[in-house]
Amino acid sequence: MAAEIHSRPQSSRPVLLSKIEGHQDAVTAALLIPKEDGVITASEDRTIRVWLKRDSGQYWPSIYHTMASPCSAMAYHHDSRRIFVGQDNGAVMEFHVSEDFNKMNFIKTYPAHQNRVSAIIFSLTAEWVISTGHDKCVSWMCTRSGNMLGRHFFTSWASCLQYDFDTQYAFVGDYSGQITLLKLEQNTCSVITTLKGHEGSIACLWWDPIQRLLFSGASDNSIIMWDIGGRKGRTLLLQGHHDRVQSLCYLQLTRQLVSCSSDGGIAVWNMDVSREEAPQWLESDSCQKCEQPFFWNIKQMWDTKTLGLRQHHCRKCGQAVCGKCSSKRSSYPVMGFEFQVRVCDSCYDSIKDEDRTSLATFHEGKHNISHMSMDVARGLMVTCGTDRVVKIWDMTPVVGCSLATGFSPH
């Protein structure tokens, strides 16, 4: 059962339209059904449910199917109405949903993994179901025959997946903080490159095939934009969340990135501005401002008869500095620092007031978000998480009305 929230947008923030409650355990995935007032959910309580909005304004389950194992991931292909559900036991199950979304038929089981499935993508063109799992591999299986076509193993749990349908490139994030770019073939694959930049496990990925940009969110609370198409290794760092970044969605039309974190934070980043790359941190044996030795520089400490200092880094210039030369803090949104970070005194003096103008908006989802997806055409977003609640949001106040042509939330 779900309650409809009757509220009108008072300011530029997401508007909560509905709450869906009824799951007995964490909801691992929730997807909006395009062109329908409906949501598909998968949960640790071993159920997959299709919720349709009734005339009363409430969402009720039109389909309630119990699985053999907790549901850990889900993909839905609307044109063919096929649902793929990954489970904690490593299997991926395929279903076909009826046109009125009141009946769901089992098609087949894919023995894709030996452990929990973390992400699924279906390619209708190739007739592949691609998945990642906690058995440290990505696998791709033929949906016609149900046979395994290939798999590639990593050194740690594979946690998330994105796929470029035109080139058959797969992006796999893992728990070591690394992203691997693979070229998938019918029975083999080749590693194109690996991307390293996060200091924590990769939790989510988003691939934009038009601008050829890859976005990654991680347990280090940060987001990195990788310019794959530019072929210059350009990366942009975005720091504004205070907890693990769990889900991403890039809106190509408005050049905005929507991100959600496990503490319920929802951020909308303006990517239609000229941003600066964060510098590489420099290494030095002494402060690059006052030249005082750091504590491991025994020779200079002995020569100058001074105590060694702790090394810090200015986030704006990357220089190695002591605490005294980097006592100030400042935000610097053009470099992705939406909250205050350590900067050296000279960089602090160079930052103007207008340089501190935020390039993102931050909002409260007020529940533990583990997964988010958007219906960009209607400006809708659905979030779900460990609190067993699913929330449907009108995002048009924060992402622009051009997304929601002809859509009225009430």
Automatic annotation (TrEMBL):
One of its GO terms (biological process) is positive regulation of toll-like receptor 4 signaling pathway. Keywords: Endosome, Metal-binding, Phosphoprotein, Repeat, WD repeat, Zinc, Zinc-finger. Gene3D superfamilies: YVTN repeat-like/Quinoprotein amine dehydrogenase, Zinc/RING finger domain, C3HC4 (zinc finger). GO terms for cellular component: early endosome. InterPro entries: WD40/YVTN_repeat-like_dom_sf (IPR015943), WD40_PAC1 (IPR020472), WD40_repeat_CS (IPR019775), WD40_repeat_dom_sf (IPR036322), WD40_rpt (IPR001680), WDFY1/WDFY2 (IPR042234), WDFY1_FYVE (IPR042733), Znf_FYVE (IPR000306). Its main location: other. Residues 281-352 form the FYVE-type domain. Pfam families: FYVE, WD40. It is found in: Early endosome. This is WD repeat and FYVE domain-containing protein 1. WD repeats lie at residues 20-51, 195-228, 238-279. Positively regulates TLR3- and TLR4-mediated signaling pathways by bridging the interaction between TLR3 or TLR4 and TICAM1. Promotes TLR3/4 ligand-induced activation of transcription factors IRF3 and NF-kappa-B, as well as the production of IFN-beta and inflammatory cytokines. PANTHER family: LD41958P, WD REPEAT AND FYVE DOMAIN-CONTAINING PROTEIN 1. GO terms for molecular function: zinc ion binding.
